[in-house]
Structure formats: structure tokens, C-alpha cells
Design a protein that fits this description.
Blueprint: H1 2-11, E1 17-20, E2 57-59, E3 62-64, E4 69-73, E5 80-85, H2 89-106, H3 111-127, H4 129-140, H5 144-164, E6 171-173, E7 181-188, E8 191-195, H6 203-215, E9 218-222, H7 228-241, E10 248-250, H8 255-267, E11 271-277, H9 280-292, E12 296-300, E13 306-309, H10 315-326, H11 335-342, E14 346-349, E15 364-367, H12 374-377, E16 384-388, H13 393-401, E17 405-406, E18 408-412, H14 416-425, E19 430-433, E20 448-449, E21 452-453, E22 466-473
Parallel strand pairs: 8-9, 8-11, 9-10, 11-12, 13-18, 15-16, 18-19
Antiparallel strand pairs: 1-13, 1-16, 2-3, 4-5, 6-7, 7-22, 12-21, 14-15, 17-20
Helix pairs in contact: 2-8, 3-5, 3-6, 3-7, 4-5, 4-7, 5-6, 8-9
The chain binds adenosine-5'-diphosphate.
């Protein structure tokens, strides 16, 4: 919390800051140095729960080894956690076939039955939450407490979509023609390909897969190469929950094969939908793939969330919010710091690798930040808070919007008129007003501009996996 006081001193008496930093979701995995002990198990494979630690791919309800395997490392210690099936394009196509076959039955399963299967999966996640959290911590490097939080958050998506599964309604429309009635049906899209990142390996899966399965779609998940164990552990639990073979498939692969596997999945004519969370650059590649066969897409891409503290703000509240939203689960990369320093920024605190070792970076506060610095417009995967001072609301909003991404934005103000104005003017998909933690399964998650397409979670999330069909009844 020491950095908070630095913020006070750098702008006193009225601290006015725009902190450009990574978005609340696109934060990535290691710990926040300076906190309490983070691990309660022996790093490496030895301390992990064997019941859930799967290394084969999961296709058509079966665990299938691949010809090759790739190592998965604990990012904190570098220890090898295990060797996982390295699937290629042929395995990807086989998984799509299995998912398509399963779809032909799954789409006909009643909404109530789909709902109760998702609920069983949720119950199993809760029962196994401690083991799942250990797996997340081991493969992503995030603190155990945060991994436990992620598991609870992830499980809630399964609970939420088990409830939403029973609320997929259509419409009846009265047209000017008396002898006709128009019906709108909502039908599952088909096979959905789900490609996930490493920072929230469990939540990204349940948020997408929960919606897909509730809608009646089947899925093939390609997890990030660093974090395949969470997706595979979830497959084990899906199996135990009785989710039919082929409905949830997982094909892990190494970084080397990601391009080929991604292309095979996203160009397959049996696939109707691509749901991706990751970098904007990869998202654009997948959009190209999708274009050729006109597939539906959901893209949750990079963010660069502004955090604005206006004159009227309760600064203590703002500091707490900044810590909660910005220093949670950050990665450890240092290029943005050196770039900023070379262009005139000043280190207020931190600024170098942490004494804990080369994989850790000190929480860093930079002042005198200008918009030409990389940290002002590129997503920083690290515990870095660059501070830009501003003089007017218009200027703050202009700085916040001067980026081609727009995932989340936060601001602190006690002025009701200003709150309305700024909330409406920020070019983002999600706004936190006097609040740093805004994610919830009940609310729509997603961004505007190059932060993505579509919304996840909430009552809207399920629409991403549904097709509208208009049926006209004549001769009445
Ligand atoms: P991050 O910044 O989270 O690492 P990436 O976009 O590199 O974002 O990775 C997110 C996911 O996209 C991972 O599962 C990764 O394997 C996958 N991926 C990376 N490149 C490609 C590609 N060319 N085609 C398909 N998937 C890819």
C-alpha cells in the first residue's frame, strides 16, 4: 500500500491522476510482491492433486495421448509440472468431428436436463475448489488466494448459465397481414471453438463454455500452452458430472503448434462459432480465419484501462480501488519502464526486478508520464502504474479515449453530474464509478473498439451462442 502515499504526495493537495494501465481482465500471471506468504504446497508436480491432474487430451469423452508431449512449467520456480499431449491439426479436426457428432444429440437435450448437468458440474467445482486452485497457482503463478477467488468466480458462471439455460425464449410477432403470424426461435449455433489465455485459465473457460452448453452448443477448447491443466481438470469434472461425451473437448498444444491448431479449428466447416480471449494481434488472425467461412465470433481482446481520479474524489477510496483493480494478478515484464524512463518519466517507487528472483518485478509507480510512452498506449503485463496529471475533465476524458482499445475504465468522483458525463463519454465496454472491482457473472463483460466483439456472462452472454430463426405461419 505504500505506493498510495506516493500518489498523494505527487499531486497534493488535489491529486488528479490518469493511470493508464492494463485492463481488468487482460492481466496476467504472477504474484503481487510484498504480500503475505503465497504458497501452501511444494512447488512442482509433487504437491499437486493427482486426481485432477490430467495430461492427455479429452475428446469424445476419452483421454487420448498424442504422439508428442510438451512441458508445462511453474512460472515462479521454473520447475516442470508435467508433460501434456501436444495436439496438432489432425487431433484438432478429430475433436471438431467429435463435438459435431455430440451436437446432433446435445441440441435435442431438454433445457432442464442441460441445466441440471451444468449445475452438477458447478457442484463438483465447488467440492474440488481447493485442488483446482492449487493447479491454477502452479501453472499460472498467481497467489493461491487469488486462484481460490478465480475458482469461485469460475464456478459461478456454471451456476449462472445452468439457470439461464432454462430461460431461452422466443417471440411471437404480429405483422400487418391478418392471416399470418411470425415466430422467432432461438437455436444453438453448433460447434464452438474456445481459445483461452493463460491469465485466467479457469474463468475464461466457464464463462464461455457455460454459455455455450446452456445454449445447446458443444465446444472444443484450446487452452493456452502455459495453463492447460485447468482446462483438463475441468474436463475431468465435466465427465464426472455426466456431461455427455463430445460436448466438452480439450486439445492442449504447445506454442509451436498453436498457429496450425488455431487455423485447423477456425477454418473447419463443422465449426460455427469462435470465442477467443487473448491479444488483439491473435484475435485479428482468428477473425481472418472466421471470415472465409463466415463464422460467428466473440473476441475479448486487449485492454488499457484508464483509472481517473477527479478533484472531488474520495482519494482513500480511489487508492483502495486502484490496488484492487490494478495490482491484482499482474505479470512481470520491464520494457515499458525503461522506455518511459528514456522519455523523461521518473520512478517514484519500484522500477526494477524484485529481490525474490528474476521472475519477479517490483510494484512500480512512474510520474511525469506522457502519451508518447509505450506504457500510455500499450497494454502493460506488469505491476506498473504510470501517472499522468490533467487539468480539466475534457482533458482527462480525451487522454483516456486516446487509444484504439476500450475494455474497462474507472473513475473516482463525488460530483453526480460529472459521473453521468464521464460514464457516458468513456469509450469502453465497462465502467467502474468509485469502484475498482466490477466483474460479476450477472453483468456483461466485454469491450469496444479493438478490445473485442460481443459480451460474456450476464443474460446477454448466452445470445453469443444462439441463432435467431424466423418462422412465418400463413393461412390462419
Ligand atoms: P496472451 O497475450 O494472452 O499470451 P495470445 O493471443 O498470444 O495472448 O494467446 C492467447 C491464446 O491464443 C493462447 O491459447 C494461444 O495459444 C493462442 N494463440 C496464439 N497464437 C495463435 C494463432 N496464430 N492461432 C490460434 N491461436 C493462437
Amino acid at each position: 500500500m505504500a505506493t498510495c502515499f506516493w500518489w498523494r504526495s505527487c499531486g497534493a493537495p488535489h491529486v488528479r491522476l490518469v493511470l493508464h494501465d492494463r485492463g481488468l481482465c487482460r492481466v496476467a500471471g504472477s504474484w503481487a510482491p510484498g504480500r503475505a506468504p503465497l504458497r501452501t504446497y511444494v512447488p512442482g508436480r509433487g504437491g499437486l492433486p493427482t486426481t485432477l491432474l490430467r495430461t492427455n487430451s479429452f475428446v469424445g469423452g476419452r483421454w487420448i495421448p498424442a504422439a508428442a508431449a510438451f512441458p508445462v512449467l511453474d512460472p515462479a520456480s521454473g520447475a516442470e509440472l508435467g508433460r501434456v499431449a501436444d495436439c496438432g491439426a489432425p487431433e484438432a479436426r478429430a475433436a471438431v468431428c467429435a463435438a459435431y457428432e455430440a451436437f446432433c444429440n446435445w441440441r435435442g437435450v431438454s433445457a432442464k436436463e442441460r441445466s441440471s448437468l451444468l449445475r452438477k458440474w458447478y457442484d463438483l467445482m465447488i467440492r474440488n475448489k481447493d485442488d483446482l486452485a492449487k493447479i491454477i497457482t502452479a501453472e499460472s503463478g498467481k497467489p493461491l488466494k487469488e486462484a481460490q477467488g478465480e475458482i469461485m468466480y469460475s464456478a459461478l458462471f456454471l451456476e449462472w448459465f445452468s439457470e439461464e439455460a432454462r430461460r431461452i425464449y422466443g417471440d411471437i410477432i404480429y405483422t400487418p397481414a391478418k392471416e399470418k403470424r411470425a415466430l422467432v426461435l432461438k437455436q444453438p449455433l453448433g460447434v464452438a471453438v474456445v481459445i483461452t489465455p493463460w491469465n485466467f485459465p479457469s474463468a475464461m473457460i466457464t464463462r464461455k463454455v457455460g454459455a455455450a452448453l446452456a445454449a445447446g452448443c458443444t465446444v472444443v477448447v484450446k487452452p493456452a500452452e502455459d495453463t492447460p491443466f485447468s482446462a483438463l481438470a475441468l474436463a475431468e469434472l465435466a465427465n464426472q458430472a455426466g456431461i455427455p461425451p463430445g460436448v466438452y473437448n480439450v486439445i492442449p498444444c504447445s506454442q509451436k503448434k498453436a498457429k496450425d491448431v488455431g487455423e485447423a479449428l477456425c477454418t473447419d466447416p463443422l465449426v460455427s462459432k469462435i470465442s477467443f480471449t487473448g491479444s488483439t494481434a491473435t484475435g485479428k488472425i482468428l477473425l481472418h480465419h472466421a471470415a472465409n467461412s463466415v463464422k460467428r465470433v466473440s473476441m475479448e481482446l486487449g485492454g488499457h484501462a484508464p483509472f481517473i481520479v477527479f478533484d472531488s474524489a474520495n482519494v482513500d477510496q480511489a487508492v483502495a480501488g486502484a490496488m484492487a483493480s490494478k495490482f491484482r494478478n499482474s505479470g512481470q515484464v520491464e520494457k515499458h519502464v525503461s522506455d518511459a524512463l528514456s522519455k523523461g518519466a521518473t520512478v517514484v517507487t519500484g522500477g526494477k526486478r524484485h529481490q525474490l528472483g528474476k521472475n519477479f518485478f517490483e510494484p512500480t509507480l512512474l510520474s511525469n508520464v506522457t502519451q508518447d510512452m509505450l506504457c500510455s498506449h500499450e497494454e502493460t503485463f506488469g505491476p506498473l502504474a504510470p501517472v499522468i496529471k490533467f487539468d480539466s475533465e475534457e482533458e482527462a476524458v480525451a487522454i483516456a479515449n486516446a487509444t484504439d482499445v476500450g475494455l474497462a475504465g474507472y473513475f473516482y468522483s463525488q460530483d453526480p453530474a460529472q459521473i453521468w458525463r464521464v460514464a457516458e463519454q468513456l469509450e469502453v465496454g465497462m465502467v467502474g464509478v468509485n469502484e475498482g472491482l466490477i466483474s460479476s457473472v450477472e453483468c456483461p463483460f466485454g469491450g469496444v473498439k479493438q478490445s473485442g466483439l460481443g459480451r460474456e456472462g450476464s443474460k446477454y452472454g448466452i445470445d453469443e451462442y444462439l441463432e435467431l430463426k424466423y418462422v412465418c405461419f400463413g393461412g390462419l
